[in-house]
Amino acid sequence: MRRVAVIGGGIAGLATAWHLARARAGAVVVLEREPLLATHSSARNAAIFQLLEELPGMLALALRTRAHLDALVGRGDAGWLKRTGELFVAPAEAELAELAALARDAGLGHARLERADVVKRVPALAAGSARYGLLVHEAGVIDVHAVAARLADAARAAGAR
Question: Distance of alpha carbon 150 from its chain centroid, rounded?
Fold first, then answer.
């Protein structure tokens, strides 16, 4: 039997190990030098989960990612995501119209905000030109360790070590 080593027990390494084990690519082993998984790159980024994006394909990718993580880790604040929202700001309401339409068409919970609500959420914007906001409720911060733990469990269940 072929042996496959995956270097690193972060999100990318654990996801790779899980998929290799599920595909029966060989005897899969994850090599991680730290006692805790997802210690380096996976744990040292902003872990922001942004749903709304104007670039073609990015919204669809974010929605698929959300569905996969909901299935793997669980939905809601007890799962993989702390819902803090995603705030877009602009000096003119019309500048947010396209994003609002994308959010509506994707079925994303969102709200339009006036300047007072924008400043209440982000006081540092009081001195700027932001007069309007669009808040997407389902975005937030990823619980990297919860995702890593579930990926490790799934990889083990598929036969990886």
Answer: 15
| Residues 151, 133: Cα–Cα separation, whole Å | 36
The CA distances from residue 94 to 68, 90, 130, 133, in Å, are 33, 9, 12, 11
Task: Give the domain CATH number at 73.
Answer: 3.30.9.10
> How many angstroms separate the CA atoms of 141 and 126, rounded?
24
Question: What's the mean per-residue pLDDT of the chain?
Answer: 94
Does residue 20 carry a pLDDT above 70?
yes
For the chain, the domain total comes to 2
Instruction: Enter the pTM of the model.
Output: 0.86
Question: Read out DSSP for 116-156?
Answer: HHHHHH-GGGGGSS--EEEEETT-EEE-HHHHHHHHHHHHH
Q: How far apart are CA 73 and CA 21, in angstroms?
A: 19
Same domain, 41 and 4: yes
